[in-house]
From TrEMBL:
It is found in: Cell membrane. It comes from Tumebacillus lacus. Belongs to the binding-protein-dependent transport system permease family. FecCD subfamily. The keyword Transmembrane applies. The chain crosses the membrane at residues 12-35, 66-83, 95-114, 121-141, 153-174, 195-217, 237-268, 280-305, 311-329. Gene3D superfamilies: ABC transporter involved in vitamin B12 uptake, BtuC. InterPro entries: ABC_BtuC-like, ABC_transptr_permease_BtuC. Keywords: Cell membrane, Membrane, Transmembrane, Transmembrane helix, Transport. It comes from the Bacteria. It is a multi-pass membrane protein. This is Iron ABC transporter permease. The keyword Transport applies.
Amino acid sequence: MKVLFSNSWSKSLGLLVALLLVIASILSSIVFGVLDTTWQTAIDAYTNFSGTNEEIVIRDVRVPRALIAAVVGASLGLSGVLMQVLTRNPLADPGIFGINAGASFAVVAAVNLFSISSLTAFTWIAFAGAALSGVVVYVLGSLGRNGLTPVSITLAGAAITALCSSFTNGLMLLNERALEEVLFWLAGSVSGRSLEMLWTVLPYALIGWVGAVILARPLQTLQLGEDVAKGLGQKTWLVKIATGVVIILLAGSAVAVAGPIAFVGLVIPHLVRPLVGNDLRWTMLFSAALGAILLLTADIGARFIAEPKEMPLGVMTALIGTPFFVYVARKGISRK
């Protein structure tokens, strides 16, 4: 496969450009929106705060929104790479592990059973639901004589996703109030989130980022085949379990703060591979950067595409990801 960045020097330069684009996207997310603001307004909001509506919006709404979008995008991009490598499935996404469905069911159940309506509470509940469903998928995928295999974990993820989605839909049909309270969260959004919510999940995301980079080399060996990896002395079961834990941390923290945003984990690895090839260390770094850029750009677009109303971010990523999903699926079928 021909790649754009063929050596370490060019990859380093490309990564620097990507990081600068992340910063530019964050700054654009802070300034551009339905409420007209300028770069000077954004600077004054922190250096010469006067209490105007524009400055309050920048400090309390747009800055948290931009930072959350960047963190969530990076986490989803990394989780997508790990899932596709672990399952050997080019269509893998956090949804395939049941993480999105588990988080959604936990939030809907909490609203129905305990009348919870706080977004901060949603964060912890969603993270717990995502983690629990991820653990269940891993346990189910590990059962059997062959242990944890790409096929078994994919089937387990599909089963848990279907089960949680059915329960979620049933609870929402029984309680219209619950539907109204969680509908915007279920569509996926970074709007209305606070920095407090980000600080809640950021430690888990950071651990996941570091873990993904550390696992790059063992997973690179595992890609050669399980027998080859075992022959080189690798404990493949340990690598798989560690990868699963990192996936839960990354995807769980993302869905906890922003809701079940689909397709970012699917799209990003396919965009990165033509840039850096199959070197997983560089793939991880570029996926984090491009994931942040994609989600920040999609969030900016969500503010204007249905102006004066705002489109949920999950809908924007679906508009981007659905054609890409069809393309990748058709490409995979045509090769068989």
